[in-house]
Amino acid sequence: MTSTVPALGTRTAEGSALQAVLLDMDGTLVDTEGFWWDVEVEVFASLGHRLDESWRHVVVGGPMTRSAGFLIEATGADITLDELTVLLNDGFEDRIGRDLPLMPGAGRLLAELYEYEIPTALVSASHRRIIDRVLTSLGAHHFGLTVAGDEVPRTKPHPDPYLAAAAGLGAHPARCAVIEDTATGVAAAEAAGCHVVAVPSVAPIAPALRRTVVTSLEEVDLTFLHGLMTEMR
């Protein structure tokens, strides 16, 4: 996709310039939402429990404490939250060490943001140890800042991670475009006051005020993002 991109900081009289792009990780940049579910199924099978497929929509996109806590309660498994968190992170880290596919359009979009020096942050509910592993594939140089789920007092669906990312990049949340794949992440970004591009991965997401829904990152480039800020001002 070829873009004609306004210079960073170029603004209309209303101040509608894009100041930063904040991106979710799992299911948005890397095709790993299915990995998390597979690991959860395997771990609970080892504990003697079978997960119901319908629970997948409950646990997707949320913080580890919420998803793991839900699964413990739903299954009645004899394991603590801390113990389960270790098992899930270990299993996921092993899985991404074998294969880490990017979502369609992710590599091109990151390269374009980097080329035009758009302040960019990775904002994930995953823990720091997982983010650092994924960054070896995504390229840490693409991000001016990364925010992990275990580094903020409240992670998604609360606005804290996106507020922290915007502040860290010196951007106003209303001048940030957030790209997310789950309702939980969308809720966090909207609560922070950001413009949202939703690329649903597991469950549908409906369009709404200050929210644009696309089917793939291949539809998203800098021209698209600059236009989004102008249309939604």
Count of helical segments?
Answer: 9
For this structure, the quaternary state is single chain
Secondary-structure element sequence?
EHHHHHEHEHEHEEH
Largest sheet: 6 strands, parallel
Radius of gyration: 18 Å
Keywords: Hydrolase
Protein name: HAD superfamily hydrolase (TIGR01509 family)
Pfam families: Hydrolase (PF00702)
GO molecular function: hydrolase activity
Produce a short descriptive summary.
This protein is an alpha/beta fold. It has nine helices and six strands.
Model description:
The protein has 233 residues and is an alpha/beta fold. It is built from nine helices and six strands, in the order βαααααβαβαβαββα. Strands 3-2-1-4-5-6 form a six-stranded parallel sheet, sandwiched between helices. Helix 6 (128-138) links the parallel strand 2 and strand 3. Helix 1 packs across helix 4 (81-98) and helix 4 runs parallel beside helix 6. It is globular, with a radius of gyration of 18 Å. Mean pLDDT is 89; it is low at 1-16.
